[in-house]
Structures are given as structure tokens and as C-alpha cells.
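Allow me, if you will, to draw on your knowledge of protein folds for a short while. I have a record of one protein: its chain in single-letter code and its fold written as C-alpha cells. Kindly check, if you would, that the fold set down in the C-alpha cells agrees with what the sequence suggests. Thank you for your consideration; the sequence and its C-alpha cells are set out here:
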Amino acid sequence: MIHHIELYVRDLAETQQFYDFLLSELNYSIYQQWDNGISYKFEDTYIVFVQVTAAYKNNGYHRKNIGLNHLAFQVNSTSQVNHLRKKLLARGTQELYAELYPFAGGPTHYAFYFEDPDRLKLEIVAEPK
């Protein structure tokens, strides 16, 4: 089981605005908050976002480099995937693989792929029952 995931971000305020919405929709709540970071918790797992220091701010992130490719969040139904997609697109979220929605991950993998403010790929998925 994963205990927590910690990510450095370019702009903590922008990241917080994005994840306050997304993670509250996924039943996470704010767990910890300090000047340079915030974490959100669901059950025993939490996600931490920390403001990167100025020396590293311009390095940027790209999922095709070595390191994390994406984070996937599971929901209970395809209707929840559709609902979150609609709400996130209305907020200006960048959708990935729109032409293949909802089966960009394969013919039985119902998912919505999109990017956070730092272009980290995220996925909302409903596994078939």
C-alpha cells in the first residue's frame, strides 16, 4: 500500500486551486497545510504538493522523461468519469486523447486523461465490474 506521494510544483497557489476541486470530488480532504505545501488525504493515503525552490522552478516537468508518468484515480462508475470530465473541461482543464475518449486506455478501460497545471498526466478510471 502506498502511504503517501509527494510532488514538487511550479506554482503552489495554482496547484492548490486545481487540486482543491479535483480531490474534493474524489472524497479527499485537506490533511496538512503550511507556507510551502499542502496535502490531501483519503483514508490512509495522502498526496503532498510542495512549492519547488526558485533554483529548480524553470526546469519543468514532462511525463516522457524518466520518472512519474501519471497518477490514476479510481471511481465507482462510468457516470462518475463522465461527470468529472464534464466539470474539469468546463474549468479549462487540458484533456489528453480526446479523440479516443473514453477508451484511450483500451477497449475495456473506461477513463478520462488530462493534465494538471504542471502538465502532470492524470487519469480518472472506472474499472468494469
